[in-house]
Write a structure and sequence with these properties.
The protein is an alpha+beta fold. 20% of the residues lie in helices and 36% in strands. A hairpin with a 5-residue loop joins strand 4 and strand 5.
Length: 257
């Protein structure tokens, strides 16, 4: 029998006087291309006096646009989600022959569609130095990406960072620490500078306590938990978008929604 996990995500703001809210864009519905099957999803927003339109952005992500015609004293967002946690092999994909060995060129029919995901930001001195440590010899593409992801997880310490925004790659490399979103954005820039199409992803991460303790190596979390998380996806010919989590150094799996 498949394991299911339920998420209840509450965001609640209260104000000491009536305030006027501008249009609110809420991106808390799993993307249609989420590999983990979402069994059910609901979004409740208060106050009830509002107008809502459900949309998809140019990248296929769901968003809900809420408009509140009157001043409010609170703003409440509730997400309830049930996901199928059936384990899948994150390496269960095939790379076309032209992409098996890096460096490679994307097929011409993909290049225009992938162009936006291949444009890096200006490279600073810290990122330039880090790029010099990456070998450029021809190598198996999947092994190359696994190695880059794992090395970055070891190089950058994970921290919980409550400040808004994302650090620049220069800041993350200089301090050698960052939140999941900081390290993921750094990996996106590294991959784009290597010629890959890469994109930033955010969503939920579900970690379940294992039924059995590992005989060798770490057993994982000792309790079930869910949190907001960020990771990176890279496009490979034949395989499509493949998730890399530089916080753990692993490929993404059923826990990433």
């Amino acid at each position: 029998m498949a394991i299911t996990a339920s998420i209840h995500h509450l965001t609640h703001y209260k104000y000491d006087r009536p305030v006027s809210l501008g249009p609110q864009l809420i991106r808390l519905r799993p993307a249609p291309h989420s590999r983990t099957r979402v069994i059910s999803h609901s979004l409740k927003v208060g106050p009830e006096q509002h107008f809502v339109s459900h949309q998809q952005d140019p990248y296929g992500n769901w968003l809900a646009r809420y408009v509140f015609p009157e001043p409010v004293t609170e703003f409440k967002i509730e997400v309830d989600l049930v996901a199928d946690m059936t384990v899948y092999n994150p390496f269960d994909f095939f790379v076309d022959e032209e992409g098996e060995t890096w460096p490679f060129e994307y097929p011409e029919e993909f290049r225009n569609d992938l162009q936006i995901y291949r444009q890096p930001e200006p490279v600073g001195p810290h990122l330039a130095d880090y790029m010099k440590t990456i070998p450029r010899d021809p190598v198996n593409t999947v092994n190359f990406l696994v190695d880059i992801n794992a090395k970055l997880a070891k190089h950058i310490d994970y921290i919980v960072r409550m400040e808004p925004g994302v650090q620049t790659p220069e800041e993350t490399l200089q301090h050698r620490r960052g939140s999941c979103r900081d390290t993921s954005w750094l990996l996106v820039q590294i991959l784009r500078n290597l010629g890959f199409a890469a994109r930033f992803c955010s969503g939920y991460l579900i970690q379940l306590k294992p039924d059995l303790q590992a005989l060798d190596g770490p057993s994982g979390t000792d309790h079930d938990f869910t949190d907001l998380h960020a990771w990176c996806e890279v496009f490979l010919p034949g395989a499509g978008w493949i998730g890399l989590d530089p916080t753990s150094g692993l490929l993404t799996g059923e826990s990433h929604i």
